[in-house]
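Our consortium's second objective concerns turning raw sequence data into structural hypotheses that experimental partners can test. To show how far this objective has progressed, the report includes one record in full. It was chosen at random from the queue rather than selected for favorable results. The single chain below, 557 residues long, was entered without modification.
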Amino acid sequence: MPPRSNDMRPRRENRTRRSGKEKDMTTKGENPPFRHPLPDAPGRDVIADWFCLHRVAITALCVFAAALTFFGSLLYPGLGGVLNSGDSAKFQVLGHTSILVHGPGYPLVLMLGTVVRFLSLPVPDWWAMTFALSAIPGSIAITFAFLIVERLTQSIAFGLAGAIWLASASLMAVQATEAEVYALTLAFILGTSFLLILFVQTRRLNFFLAACAVYSLSFGNHLMMIMLVPMFLIVTLIHYRIVLRWRPVAIVLGFILLGASQYLYLAYIAYSPDTAYSEYMPLPPATVMELIHYILGTYFSDLYGSGMQSTLTLEALLTTFRSAYPGLSLPLVIVGVLLFFAGWTRRDIAWRGLAVIYGTGLSFVPFALWYGAYDIQAFHLPVLGPFLVASVATIGWWLRDRKLAFTVLTAAALVAGLVRAGQTAMILSEREPAFAGVRSAVEELVRQSPVENPIIAMSYGVRMATLYYELRGEVPTTPTYRVHWRAIALVEDQPSVGGIVVPAEGYQFVRWIEEKRPDMTCRTQELRQSEDAAWPAYSFECHSQATSPSAPGNSPG
């Protein structure tokens, strides 16, 4: 027996001559097939659909509140994080001080930091920034996951299952509880996808324009959103009679300009005297081109395309899919994709929506494979999120007309999602702060410094954690704190230098000095620390041959 049509309302024949605009807004002989958004059918259907809309809206608000409670209660307990502790600590600095983060600059995140500082909430700065940057956007992403699955399966219960599955997936849960930009990125991705689904299904121009507005705002968060441009082009070409008119085109161009204008705020921050140095770009920028190169992230250019030189990025992406729900998530995605292609013969209105969300996830696959930072799993969330949501929705859509199977599947999906959510909560609650003792450790190391104003060369993560306390005035101010590769520049024109390297990494830093300044000789000494010290360190003194002391010291290494 062929599956019944998704059109839940009787067709109405309209024998009057319609204008060209009306013809563009609906397909010939086809009314909007789903019970929401608001229909134009009279009588009891309108009342039923009104209640359905409000029931979905109220449930979506409950989903947001539940997700916010879940993520907010499981925030990473301090500076840093599990996936990328240095970046997370750096974003947390924005909770109390205006700084520049790494390229492309993230002006929307800088604005968010400004709001957090303005509110001056009675909570630790690192907690407030993590909550605002990750927990709230993560909850928005989960809400859109619910709306997408509910829309495509016409089941609130199955929409709840889809939301729970995404919320309890390993990578999603970590990104929504640590200070990073990818929960916000996924919120933009799923929000844009939901609006495009509404447009594709209803052909109402306002949904397309809303999708463009959200999309343009997303460029202030991460420039990887450019990967969605082909999706917009495909949707535009399919619906060119609706979209390619002068008024919609003008509105879209206006949205593009508004999105790009966020980088004017970045320029303002870069030239503001209140912005503190954070190791990335000299402040203020010497030239406009220096700022442009910073936005383009050209210092990451060695990673561009390097992911295609081996299979490491592909292997890492597959590992992400496997670990989301160990033993379940990768088979789920495979089954979902197969059912989607098998549904080609029943290409109803829901199938078109599935095509949008699958296309969204597929859009980010080239970036995940092309960019060579295979060890940064956070880049995979824009792929994992849409594919996980789409796969759950596909299975629900496929079984929607088989009531018993659909009911059993819904119950099983809800139970599995809740069990996994409990497991995920236990894992997240066991995380320990990576930089809990960094402030006291730095104070102890400075007391053992061989010179009065030392250079303290640090690994990236330790440096960002120290920056958090440095800008709060909670660590000694006499040293010059730098990451290893920035500290090297401080010795170029000095007849003698001294300081501390933490953590000790094979005395590599001193070797760098001697390579850059062959006229210098260095001596090193391991610093006294407790046996359980997290960051072993050593002091160093380097002198040019003209000023070198006669007594030899320890050789590095």
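The partners drew two points from this record. The chain has two domains: 46-430, 438-547. The CA atoms of residues 291 and 390 lie 39 Å apart. Both points have been shared with the crystallography group to help prioritize constructs.
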